[in-house]
């Protein structure tokens, strides 16, 4: 991205940057992929691979478990085949002993062998039900055993006890041949089961090898996938973010001539382009701010000169203008006293008008001076006890209060930080207005209320039962020289409430007329001060 800002610039106002140039060539289609799209595609691909690997691992584990069960079943079947052979041998031994002796005790092994034969034959069928060759040999064994039992065992066992059984002697050769066939069938069955065991073990070994190879491949694939994910995040997200943060950090440190180069996915490049555009606008705004600051400095100097001239004018107004007014009033009064016998009533009236005009002009000048001094002169702040200040103000207005028969009361007042002189002027103007604009129909009742809030702001209100202020004049009364009554009805210059507004705002508060109060007037104002909790904490700290 090229700009016209020189590399050794010391301030943003020393150059005007050009519009950011587009980034270099990109791979087709790569520029349209955002970070979310890259992450979504990567996560979807990774999940797909992991699901496939999980399915393959589950299949090989299930196959290994099945083959393990087959091996265990084959081992169990071999044991059952051996015990089946033992049960047949017990039957043959029992029948042969009974045939030779006729003693019933020899039939016990025979009967036990018959039950064991059924039990182990059933176990063999259950364990090797999926091997047709084993079932075939088992069926052959049971057929041979059945022939031997029908031809030899059952008839011999049915013979009466007490002596050798003649049938056993007669069929001794046949019995030996039939049982040899049973032994041969038993041997074939065990060989078949042994082959099944070896096949199952071979399959299990093969499955174990396949499982180990598959798990090794899964581990390698997961390692490769993890490496690919980290590499992709590093290349597509982390590295562009590091570059963008580095560029932004350089700009934040004051190198406004350093361009922010867009890299990475589309949304990250768009963000980088936005940051660089903001940098360019910031350079322009700073340059404009420098120019405005220079202009403001010139205006401030001009204001200082103007204020100095205004202060000089105030000095002239307070001294040079008031002296001629005092002379006009004094000489008019002297003229009236010395030549009273030569002047008619109209001349005396004219002289009275001149004296009254001079006095009102002098009063107006004093009020304007007081208004202009708020915030400029006598603005030394200190701790002001409003209780004492209210008492002094009521004492100054005591004559007017007594003449009006007014009742003046107040809430407990706090100690605030401010200018005592100005706050005294505030109370004096508000109380004098309450006395001045009283109603002829009732005795004046004036009250100053004070209430704190949790934000450290005190809410005051001067309430009276006088003639009141209409809601339509609630804003007008605070404008300088705005009067709602003629001078003949109520004396004054229309500066009092404007002065109050300026004093309250200088102290960081607000003032307004409460239009809902009736009868009379309620002027509410706020002054900043400590909250009751903070005041209590300060009191405890002072006691310590």
What does this molecule look like?
The structure is a single chain. The relative contact order is 0.06. This protein has 3 domains: 47-241, Four Helix Bundle (Hemerythrin (Met), subunit A) (Up-down Bundle), CATH 1.20.120; 309-368; 380-543, Histidine kinase-like ATPase, C-terminal domain (Heat Shock Protein 90), CATH 3.30.565. β4 (445-452) and β5 form a beta hairpin. α2 (107-127) packs antiparallel against α3 and α5 packs parallel to α6 (266-338). With 544 residues, it is α+β, with helices and mostly antiparallel strands. The longest helix has 81 residues, at 172-252. The chain has helices spanning 35-101, 107-127, 132-158, 166-170, 172-252, 266-338, 345-373, 386-396, 398-404, 420-436, 496-506, 532-543, and strands spanning 382-385, 407-410, 415-418, 445-452, 457-463, 511-513, 522-528.
Strand content: 5-15%
Counting helices, strands and paired strands, the structural category is alpha+beta
Radius of gyration: 59 Å
Distance between the termini: 66 Å
């Amino acid at each position: 991205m090229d700009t016209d800002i020189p590399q050794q610039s010391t301030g943003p106002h020393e150059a005007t940057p050009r519009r950011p140039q587009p980034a270099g060539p990109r791979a087709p289609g790569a520029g349209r992929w955002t970070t979310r799209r890259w992450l979504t595609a990567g996560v979807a691909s990774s999940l797909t691979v992991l699901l496939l690997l999980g399915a393959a691992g589950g299949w090989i584990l299930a196959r290994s478990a099945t083959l393990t069960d087959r091996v265990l079943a084959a081992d169990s079947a071999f044991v059952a085949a051996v015990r089946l052979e033992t049960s047949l041998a017990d039957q043959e031994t029992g029948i042969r002993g009974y045939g030779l002796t006729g003693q019933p005790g020899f039939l016990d092994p025979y009967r036990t062998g018959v039950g064991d034969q059924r039990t182990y034959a059933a176990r063999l069928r259950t364990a090797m039900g999926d091997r047709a060759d084993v079932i075939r040999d088992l069926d052959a064994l049971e057929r041979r055993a059945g022939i031997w039992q029908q031809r030899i065992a059952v008839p011999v066992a049915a013979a009466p006890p007490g002596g050798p059984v003649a049938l056993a002697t007669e069929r001794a050769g046949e019995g030996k041949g039939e049982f040899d066939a049973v032994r041969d069938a038993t041997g074939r069955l065990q060989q078949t089961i042994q082959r099944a065991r070896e096949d199952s073990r071979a399959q299990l070994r093969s499955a174990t090898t396949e499982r180990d190879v598959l798990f090794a491949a899964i581990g390698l694939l997961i390692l490769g996938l993890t490496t690919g994910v980290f590499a992709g995040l590093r290349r597509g997200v982390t590295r562009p973010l590091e570059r963008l943060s580095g560029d932004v950090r350089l700009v934040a440190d004051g190198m406004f001539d350093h361009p922010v180069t867009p890299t990475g996915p589309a949304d990250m490049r768009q963000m980088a382009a936005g940051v660089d555009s903001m940098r360019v606008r910031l350079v322009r705004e700073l340059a404009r701010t420098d120019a405005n600051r220079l202009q403001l400095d010139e205006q401030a100097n001009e204001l200082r000169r103007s204020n100095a001239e205004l202060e000089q004018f105030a000095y002239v107004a307070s001294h040079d203008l008031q002296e001629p007014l005092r002379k006009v009033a004094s000489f008019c009064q002297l003229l009236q006293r010395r030549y009273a016998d030569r002047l008619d009533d109209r001349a005396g009236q004219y002289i009275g008008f001149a004296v009254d005009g001079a006095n009102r002009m002098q009063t107006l000048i004093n009020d304007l001076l007081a208004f202009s001094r708020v915030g400029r002169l006598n603005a030394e702040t200190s701790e002001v006890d409003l209780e004492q200040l209210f008492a002094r103000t009521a004492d100054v207005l005591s004559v007017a209060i007594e003449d009006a028969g007014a009742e003046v009361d107040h809430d407990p007042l706090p100690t605030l930080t401010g200018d005592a002189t100005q706050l005294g002027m505030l109370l004096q103007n508000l109380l004098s207005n309450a006395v001045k604009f009283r109603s002829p129909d009732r005795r004046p009742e004036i009250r100053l209320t004070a209430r704190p809030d949790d934000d450290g702001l005190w809410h005051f209100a001067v309430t009276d039962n006088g003639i009141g202020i209409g809601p339509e004049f609630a804003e007008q009364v605070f404008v300088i020289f705005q009067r709602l009554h003629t001078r003949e009805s109520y004396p004054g210059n229309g500066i009092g409430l404007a002065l109050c507004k300026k004093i309250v705002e200088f102290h960081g508060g607000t003032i307004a007329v409460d239009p809902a109060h009736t009868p009379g007037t309620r002027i509410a104002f706020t002054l900043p001060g400590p909250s009751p909790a903070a005041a209590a904490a300060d009191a405890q700290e002072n006691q310590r």
